[in-house]
Amino acid sequence: MPASRIVFTVAAVVATLFVLATAFFPGRAAALAGALQDGIVTRFGWFYILSVAIFLFFSLWLMLSRYGRIRLGDDEDEPDYGYLTWFAMLFAAGMGIGIMFYGVAEPMLHFGTPRFSEPGSIAAAKEAMETTFFHWGLHAWAIYIVVGLSLAYFGYRHGLPLTVRSTLYPLLGERIHGPLGHLVDVMAVLGTLFGIATSLGFGVLQVGSGLAFLGWLPATTTNHVLLIAGITAVTTLSAASGLDRGVRRLSELNVLLAVALVCFVFIAGPTVFLLSTFVESVGLYLQELVLNSFRTTAFRHAEWQKTWTMFYWGW
C-alpha cells in the first residue's frame, strides 16, 4: 500500500474516533483534553518558549548568513509567483482567521486584565499592544519558517516526498520510508487537523456573533455547525482546485479586503493617534524582544503564560 494511503487511513481512523468520542462523551473529553493540555504546558512550557526563541534566532541567522542564498530548488529554477502573491497565500494560510479574531480581542483583553499594570491605565494599554505584537510578530512566523524551509529544502532540493517525514532524513535516513516515517506523518496530519479545527472554531464564533449582531442569524449551536460545514466546503473546493486557482485567488482577495479594512480604519479613525501608537508599540516590542523570547514566568503569572503564550506556540 502506498505510504500516502497508509498515512491517510490511520489519521482518518484516529480523527474519526476522536470526533465520535467527543460527540458522545463531551464532558469526559473536555476534562481529559484540559488535563492533558495543563500537564503539557506545566511540564514542557519552558521547552515551548525555548524552542520558539531558537527558531526565531536561527531564522534570523539563516537569513543573514551565506546559507540564506541557497535556492529552494534547482539552481536554474525561478519562482512560480511574485512576492505579493506568495505573501498573500502565506499570510492567508498562516494568520487568516486567528488574527481577525484576536487582532482586536487580544489587546482589549490585555488592557482590561494586564499582567503587570493597573487595568485600564496607560501602562496597561502599552503592555497590551506590546504583548499582542509579541504573540503575532516574528516568533509566530519563525515557527512556520523552520518547518516551511525544511519541507522545501528536502522536497525540492533533494527530491524527497513533500511530507514532514522528509525533514527528519538526516536523523532517520532511509527509515523515513518505513513505519517510523508513517508515524511521523500521521502525527503531523493530526497536529495540523487539530490546529485548523482551533482556527475554524474561533472563526465560526466570530462570524456567528457578527451575523447575530446584525440580526441575520441567531448564534445557536445548529447555526454554528452549519457555518462550519459551509466554511469547510469552500476551503475544500479551494484546496482541491490547486494553488493557481482557488488558493491563490481567495488569498489575494483576502489580502485586498484586509488592506481595504485597514485603509478604512486609518482614514475614518484617529489617524495621527493610530500612527503614533503603531510606532511606539513597535519600539516597545523590539525593546522587550529578547526578554519576552525567554520569559517563562517561573515566579509569577504562570497561569497567564499557560493560557496565552504557550497556548499560541502549541496552536
From TrEMBL:
Q: Which GO terms describe its cellular component?
A: plasma membrane
Could you say which residues form the signal peptide?
A: none
For this UniProt entry, the molecular function terms from Gene Ontology, in alphabetical order, are:
transmembrane transporter activity
Q: Please give the superkingdom of this protein's source.
A: Bacteria
Q: Give its localization.
A: Cell membrane
**How would you describe this protein's topology in the membrane?**
Multi-pass membrane protein
The answer to keyword NADP applying to this record is no
What residue intervals traverse the membrane? 45-64, 84-105, 136-156, 183-205, 225-243, 255-279
Q: Which UniProt keywords apply?
A: Cell membrane, Membrane, Transmembrane, Transmembrane helix, Transport
> Which family, according to the similarity comment?
Belongs to the BCCT transporter (TC 2.A.15) family.
Q: What is this protein called?
A: Choline/carnitine/betaine transport
Please name the source species.
Azoarcus indigens
Organism placement in taxonomy? Bacteria, Pseudomonadati, Pseudomonadota, Betaproteobacteria, Rhodocyclales
